[in-house]
Amino acid sequence: MKIQRCLFLFTVAASATLMAEPPVPTDRVAVLKALPIDAGKAVSIERITEGQMTAANGAAYKNLPSRTVVKLVLNPAKGSNIRVEAWLPDPEKWNGRFLGLGNGGAAGNINPGSFAGPITEGYAVATTDMGTAPNSDSGIGNKEVWKDFGFRATHLMTVTAKQLIKAYYGKAPEYSYFNGGSTGGQQALQEAQRYPEDYDGIVANVPAHCRTPLHAYFLWNDQILRQCPFTESQEANIIAAGNEYMASREIPQTAGKLVSDPRYNKADIEAVIVLARKKDSTLTERHAEAMRKLFDGPKHLVTGERIFCGIPFGSSFKAAHGHLYLFRWVFGPDKNLAELNFGADIDTYTAALAPYLNAENPDLSAFEKRGGKLLMISGTADSVVPFHASIDYYERAAEHFGSLDKVRSFLRLYLVPGMSHGPGPGINKLPSMLNMVINWREKNAVPDVIQGQRIINGKTEIDIPLYPYPGKTGWDEAGGFKKVDGPRVGVDRISARFIPPAAD
């Protein structure tokens, strides 16, 4: 009896021990504190058990797991000041993966809320302010900030985070992934092109990879809209005209509601202008000329070469301008940007920034050879980062590799109908692209059809399958949705002089 009682007590005690979450040994934190950081230092290393957090923007997060938070500053060159933050879940909660997160806009800050989802799912996760704190003016005349924002900060964040992970867990991550949108999409493609060994899988959502031409597009639109503004009502009628004109090319579920394939030509531009003016009698000849320029997009004043394409039909004019900080970086804070021309001034601007900021190298062979997988997503109604450059890049990659099939084996592009710069009026809900790229890389589950939804006021209005470019969603009454072969290219190629080779 005594033996049985002892065995019972031992079993209960062992079970309780297994059920309790073992604390992270203090020496793990000590190891991090002792870890030498190349060209940088740890500002704080803190073990946090509190499950609630309120971010600076007031957003509240609950049920966060215990984690160790490391904040660092890296100074790889004089004039460079890169902040990095990493969150490390407790060892028994770690899923064995590292996740790098992208930033947005001009960066300059780190949003702690971006860590909440990944840390809850077991990722060791890190991000960077890209070296542009305290604001975008940090890049005025500072080439080191240009390099940090363009590519260096993201790479050093990645290298440093992996050092922290190895020290903390005693081993390197099994797989490393990057997930970013907009500016984070620029970071994503820079990583694939410049540092193919950094990540096993990458998601580039609405990627601002064609950076300097994109901001030339912002300036082009800004100058036009300053001279000829549009009211909200006028803009709404122009958007409606674009959707209506393109309706004949749509399936029944989307006709007149959004534009699935916004590629157009000069004749289409003229037709949309005519239709918009029929809808809105306040649109004048001056407005018509402005629309003509906005839809066509910027070209070089002297040579006529394509710098970037125009605003997509069915998307916002208001969202398509501003973001002019890159021009202040080159021309200084006192330059009147309304006076910049699209000849010599654009040449000066391109020569200064393009080699650092643009992620346009189609040679992804090193990334492909190591088994890397890359997903790109672009919204057809996104006027902040229009779809044109992503199609252009994808087609140049296909040319480099010699076939579309070769590129599709490791890189896929999805054009999401009616999606703006993130969730918007079109298809605004997609499955997790991060999970898709993980399953592609680790299980060879090749992504093909994905389900997109348009949700309005909490109700699903459209539920539609989406196919990777150049596939499109078709429809017939007998069989319902089907995959059809969409057109290739269909956008003007950005001139090579505006996307010169990368420089370190």
Task: Compose a concise summary of this entry.
With 504 residues, this protein is of the alpha/beta class. The protein has helices at 2-19, 26-34, 116-120, 143-169, 183-194, 211-227, 232-245, 266-279, 285-296, 325-331, 344-357, 365-369, 388-401, 404-408, 433-443, and strands spanning 40-48, 53-54, 60-61, 67-74, 82-89, 97-101, 124-128, 175-181, 201-205, 373-379, 411-416, 450-456, 459-466, 471-476, 480-485. The strands form 4 sheets. It has a 9-stranded mixed β-sheet, with helices on both faces. A two-stranded antiparallel sheet has the order 2-3.
Report on this model:
This protein is α/β, with parallel strands linked by helices. The chain folds into two domains: 26-211 and 357-485, Rossmann fold, CATH 3.40.50; 213-333, no CATH class. It is 37% helix and 18% strand. The chain has 15 helices and 15 strands. It has a nine-stranded mixed beta sheet with strand order 1-4-5-7-6-8-9-10-11, with helices on both faces. A two-stranded antiparallel sheet has the order 2-3. 45% of the residues are buried.
List the helices and strands and how they pair.
Layout: H1 2-19, H2 26-34, E1 40-48, E2 53-54, E3 60-61, E4 67-74, E5 82-89, E6 97-101, H3 116-120, E7 124-128, H4 143-169, E8 175-181, H5 183-194, E9 201-205, H6 211-227, H7 232-245, H8 266-279, H9 285-296, H10 325-331, H11 344-357, H12 365-369, E10 373-379, H13 388-401, H14 404-408, E11 411-416, H15 433-443, E12 450-456, E13 459-466, E14 471-476, E15 480-485
Parallel strand pairs: 6-7, 6-8, 8-9, 9-10, 10-11
Antiparallel strand pairs: 1-4, 2-3, 4-5, 5-7, 12-13, 14-15
